[in-house]
Amino acid sequence: MSHSISLPTHGSVPNSKSTIKNGNIPINNSYFNQSDKSDRKIDDGLEGNDLIKTLSEQLILETTMNLHKPTRAENQVDTLSIYRDLLTCFTPRQSKAIMSTILYFLNEQFYMHYNDKFLRDFEIDKQDHLFNSLKSEIQYIITNNRDTELNKHHLLLTRLKRDLDSIVDEINELIIDQYEKNCKLDFHEHKNENTLLYKRINLNLNDCSNKITIQITSGIKSEIETLRWQTTRSGLLAVVIMASSFMIVVNISNKKSRNSTTDILIENNSNKNEDEVNDNEIIDIEVI
């Protein structure tokens, strides 16, 4: 019965199919499964913070669960089967000695170096690669979330600006409408005031015109009465004066007619006397 030991050599990187057949201990590189899980979670639309938390928990879980622990030949080799094979050719004591020698050389020549170098370097490289991959994913998620949040904030800012512009337009329309209403109210108030003032002025003008008409009419009537009285008085005075004048003229004419008659008589007498005197003088002259 043959037994095969398939072990990784120093410096090689085992894949997911590398196993130690007799020990049934798989050495798996679970980074790709981890990446697939992370990609599926990202594609499923997990939030950034939840995804970062999940990746961190998975990194810790991968470090604690999939860490390959140091081992020895006793744990990896089917010692019972080898011992039985040795008993077919050697004594039990010799078989034990050979078995101990084989295990000693395996531990000294292989598993010591394997535990010291390969497992440590492999786990460090694997964890470093996993850490860098998760770091890249986290950076991508952070960048993507930052861009997404920036776009959201930009869209929100644009929406707020649009809402602000619409609100400003509505406020301006309300202000304009209010101004128009106020202007219309003021216009109607001034119109009503002007109408009332116009009516009041017309009433005052009518009152004034009536008063003026009454005053003028009363004044004209009084003037007419005064003129009538004055005319009547003047007419009476004129009649009296004319009658007096006529009587005076008649008296004067009578006196003049009497005086003229007297004068004529006197003149006639004086002419007669003068004629007599002249005749006497002529006679005297002739006598002389």
Automatic annotation (TrEMBL):
<keyword id="KW-0175">Coiled coil</keyword>
<keyword id="KW-0812">Transmembrane</keyword>
<dbReference type="GO" id="GO:0016020">
    <property type="term" value="C:membrane"/>
</dbReference>
<dbReference type="Pfam" id="PF07798">
    <property type="entry name" value="CCDC90-like"/>
</dbReference>
<keyword id="KW-1133">Transmembrane helix</keyword>
<feature type="transmembrane region" description="Helical">
    <location>
        <begin position="234"/>
        <end position="252"/>
    </location>
</feature>
<keyword id="KW-0472">Membrane</keyword>
<feature type="region of interest" description="Disordered">
    <location>
        <begin position="1"/>
        <end position="25"/>
    </location>
</feature>
<dbReference type="InterPro" id="IPR024461">
    <property type="entry name" value="CCDC90-like"/>
</dbReference>
<dbReference type="GO" id="GO:0005739">
    <property type="term" value="C:mitochondrion"/>
</dbReference>
<protein>
    <submittedName>
        <fullName>Uncharacterized protein</fullName>
    </submittedName>
</protein>
<keyword id="KW-0496">Mitochondrion</keyword>
